[in-house]
Every structure is written in C-alpha cells, then in structure tokens.
Design goal:
With 297 residues, the chain is mostly helical. The protein has one domain: MetI-like fold (Orthogonal Bundle). It is built from 13 helices and two strands; from the N terminus they run H-E-E-H-H-H-H-H-H-H-H-H-H-H-H. Strands 1-2 form a two-stranded antiparallel sheet. A hairpin with a 7-residue loop joins strand 1 and strand 2. The radius of gyration is 25 Å and the shape is globular. The chain starts with a helix and ends in a 5-residue tail after the last helix.
C-alpha cells in the first residue's frame, strides 16, 4: 500500500509540475490582480504614491457626483440595447441564407466569416476611411443617388450609430455558431412538417427558431458581456469620447481615468461597478431562459 501511495504521489507531483507554468501565471496575472483591484477600489492611488485608504469615497463619487459615469453608462447601455438584438437578427438571417445547399456555398461562408478575424484596430482604421465625409466610400455611394451624406464620425448622433453599424462587421463569428445550430436540427422535423402541409414561415416559427433558442441564448449572453466591454473601436476612432460624448463608452472612460489621469483607485471602483452591472444583467437573462429557451431531448 505504501509503495502504491508513493507512486500516486509522484504521479500527482509530475502532473502539477507540468501545469505549474500556467498555474503560476494564472495566480500572478489573474487571481492576484483580481483581489488587488478590490482593495484599490477603496483607495486613492496614482501609481507614483502609495495607496491611501479612502473607504467608500470612490463609490460615493461615482454614484452621486460623477456625471460622466452616468453618461458613459447610458451610452454603453444604449449600445447594448441596439447592437445585441441587431447582431442576433443579422446573424440568424445570414446563417439561414448560408445554410442552403448550393454549389460554392462554402466560399460565401468563408467570405462572411473572414471579417470577424480581422484585427479590431485594422477594422477601425478601415471604417475611418469608409465613413470619411469627404472621400469615404459610403458618402461617395450616396452622392450617386443625389444624397449628401453626413459627417458620420464627427457629429452626434451619427458617430454613435456609426459604431453600431461597425459592430455588425464581425457578425460572421456568431453566424458560424448559428449555422452550426441549424445543422443540428433533425431533418425529420421538417419532413413531418412538410407532410402536415406547413409552409416555410410555419417551419421557421415552430421548428427553426424554437430549436435555435439555446444558440440564441448563448450569443445573447456573450453579446451583452461583449457590448459592456466595447472599447477598442471607440478608442481608435474617438479617444476623447467623440462629439458631445456620444461615443464615450464606459470602458473608454474607465481607461482614461486609469491611464490618462492615473486615478487607479477610482478606475478600480469603476471596474467593479461594471462587473456588478454585467453580473446582474446576465443573471436576469439566465432567469428568463426557462420561458423561451427550448432544449431538445
């Protein structure tokens, strides 16, 4: 028994040695900063000087005195309300179109998926040119039809809706997930519906969408989390918040507070407020899934 125990102990030790690089990195760069940020959120800390304990002052200032906090939170919430449902609808529509068995369909699937793997900074720079009011592609096309396009990224509210439009550029990623969900729907359900005389709209309503609800639920949760972390595009296009702060997203304000003003304690408090908001919203979505998500079985 002792020999067997020693052999198992050596196996465990060998396993831990193999995973130790990842484990050390996880503890040092994820777990430690996670708990450190909790402490810093109750301090005034500018990196140069030692952190000074201020209690709940950062949170009180956030909720009662900081107008930019509420403005950036509203911009982010509005973006989530518009972009997440829009991305779901467009993603499902593309998946349905690309689920048709025709020659060369894999080429079209690849074309629609490729934008989702283009680096975000490159995409942002591309859209700066596309939406340029003088030489941009969008306004040039509008001129053909006699329409004078606006200064998309330089006026409010067009700057905000330009970023909403940009968010659809990477919809190919969710489209692939919807396409996988469509492939997983049993064919015999459609065959039975055809025998019963159901048309395409009835099949969509009573078979396709109900069977797709688990995939829709997954993309909804990921979309909510992603929309509240929306940062790179807004930072590249308008690092100071855009016209009338119309593109001053919460994550952008958090970044500026931390690295532009070196107010790390306040930024940590903002990060934890963001964490609580996302937890509450995703929790509410999870509570609703019993009413509309149908898991096949």
């Amino acid at each position: 028994m002792a020999r067997r125990s020693n052999h198992k102990a050596k196996q465990y030790l060998t396993g831990y040695l193999f995973v130790s690089p990842w484990l050390i990195g996880f503890l040092a760069f994820t777990v430690w900063p996670f708990f450190q940020s909790i402490y810093l959120s109750f301090t005034r800390y500018n990196i140069v000087s030692p952190a000074k304990w201020v209690g709940t002052a950062n949170y009180r200032m956030l909720l009662t005195q900081d107008e930019l906090f509420w403005k950036s939170a509203w911009v982010t919430i509005k973006f989530a309300i518009i972009s997440v449902p829009l991305a779901i609808v467009v993603g499902i529509a593309l998946a349905l179109l690309l689920n048709i068995n025709v020659k060369g369909i894999t080429v079209f699937r690849t074309i629609f998926y490729l934008p989702s793997i283009v680096p975000t900074v490159a995409t942002s720079v591309l859209f700066i040119w596309i939406l340029n009011p003088n030489i941009g592609l969008v306004n040039r096309v509008l001129e053909i039809f006699g329409i004078k396009g606006p200064a998309w990224l330089n006026t409010s509210p067009w700057a905000f809706y330009s970023l909403v439009m940009m968010s659809l550029w990477g919809v190919g990623g969710s489209m692939i997930i919807y396409l996988a969900g469509l492939k997983d729907i049993p064919v015999h359900l459609y065959e039975a519906a055809t025998i019963d005389g159901a048309n395409a709209i009835r099949k969509m309503r009573h078979i396709t969408l109900p069977m797709m609800t688990p995939v829709i639920f997954f993309n909804l949760v990921m979309g909510i989390i992603g929309s509240f972390q929306y940062f790179t595009q807004a930072f590249v296009i308008a690092p100071n918040g855009g016209p009338q702060d119309s593109t001053y997203f919460y994550s952008l304000y958090l970044y500026n507070r931390a690295w532009k003003y070196l107010d790390m304690g306040y930024a940590s408090a903002m990060a934890w407020m963001l964490f609580l908001i996302v937890i509450v919203l995703t929790g509410l979505v999870f509570r609703t899934q019993k009413k509309w998500v149908h898991y096949g079985g």
